Amino acid sequence: MSLLELDNITKSFGAIHALSKVSLTIQPGEAVGLMGDNGAGKSTLMKIIAGNFMPSSGEIRIENKPVAFHKPIDARNAGIEIVYQDLALCDNLTAGANVFLGRELKRKFGPISMLDYPAMYKRAGELFAELKSETRPRDLVRQMSGGQRQAVAIARTRLSDPKLVLMDEPTAAISVRQVAEVLALIKRLKETGHAVVLVSHRMPDVFDVCDRVAVLRRGTKVADKPIKETSPEEVTGLIIGAIEAA
After folding, report:
1. Does 94 share its domain with 80?
2. Any idea where the ABC transporter domain is (predicted)?
């Protein structure tokens, strides 16, 4: 049974057609690379899956059941989490506090309610250990490398134990060593049964961690192939239009 099915998803913003009849299927534990040039529709598709936009037409199904996401919390409740390119972290807070941002644990002392930092740091530490990251819960985010920041953002998605994690350009602005850290985190998500959709411009990253690659061009899906049956050269040709479709 497929985890996520997108059936003829179309999205228009007035006269602008951002997506046209895009269909895509994601299996449990599978990583799918989503590639395309700027303006191809990748971010719009991700925001539809994450509940930021409603499609103009088409259907979304989770485990064969039709769903309608009116807001991001609807997608989260269906088991979908997203890591945005800017990570949406608070630099002045610790890693543990960022993991629980908006979902803080509290303890009650009679009528008084207080944040339960020991419990949050303990759980954050367990999540970092599961991800095999050296990030420490009490460290300030402002002092962290790009790879460690990604670990914080990914650990935050793990709080709800999602079925699908969407990642928007996670390796766009970090060093080569930190790229290796982030790709290891994605592989770890797959090993623990999570499906991943990876939006990336970096061909080596997609070919390293993904099982399939889907290519969008001008809002239309022009390819959806197993990684083993394609090549960086073919994908590049599809992205720029030198190859019509595959």
Report:
1. no
2. 4-243
